[in-house]
Amino acid sequence: MTQPVVDGPVQPHAEDPTQPEPKPGRRATPWREAAAIAAAGMPVGLLWWLLAPSGLNLLTGNPELAAGRNTATWLPRDLVLAGLFLLAGCIAGAVVSGSKHDQPAPGSIILLVLSGALGAVIAWGTGVLSGHWWGAAVDTSANASIAFSLRSYAILAIWPAAIALSIFLQSLFPMPGRAPDAEAGQPPA
């Protein structure tokens, strides 16, 4: 017995249980996610100025660390920004990573990582601008780092790297609450 010849691609049946069901409205578009990540740079930069030594110094409250002339404040000031970038990148990566079978496309991942880099630059600029507007006037003739600034520009790579690492780890180890069987409302096999 011979099989009939099929012209064109075979379409799956609508009731085929092996085909995943589309989830309408579950994921935002990559451009919206990228814009939200980049816009998060403004509150992160403001938070950096509020918490860091030689800024408003709410984290330590130590008056000796409030002045930018104290060189002991320069490293903690950069480390506060690094910690904020790591936190923001991990949160952003976890939010956009999706489930094991609903991961962002490679182009979307590149867009999200680039938006993390843009968010880091926006945060840096917001923090420096906050220090310029609301900080005490300082004489930077001895060293530019006396003013509220960033000494290690490599810290700007932490936010996009944390996004990429978070998406990568989520693809390797999906969260139990995001299992594809639980999302579709089907009992596990």
Notes on the structure:
- There is one protein chain.
- The chain is mainly alpha-helical.
- Helix content is 49%, strand content 0%.
- It has six helices and no strands.
- It has helices spanning 30-39, 41-51, 74-96, 106-134, 158-172, 180-184.
- Helix 1 (30-39) runs parallel beside helix 4.
- It is elongated and about 90 Å long.
- The two termini are 36 Å apart.
- 26% of the residues are buried.
- The model has no long low-confidence stretch (mean pLDDT 83).
Supply the key terms.
single chain, 189 residues, mainly alpha, 6 helices, 49% helix, 0% strand, elongated
Biggest beta sheet attributes = none
Work out the oligomeric state of the chains in this entry: single chain
- The counted number of beta strands is 0
Query: SSE order in H/E notation?
Result: HHHHHH
Distance between the termini: 36 Å
Query: Percent of residues in helical segments?
Result: 40-55%
What is the general shape? elongated
Mean pLDDT: 83
Question: Number of helical segments?
Answer: 6
Low-confidence runs of at least 5 consecutive residues: none
Coarse structural class:
mainly alpha
Rg from alpha-carbon coordinates? 24 Å
* Beta-strand content: under 5%
Provide a quick synopsis of the model.
The protein is mainly alpha-helical. The chain has helices at residues 30-39, 41-51, 74-96, 106-134, 158-172, 180-184. It is built from 6 helices and no strands.
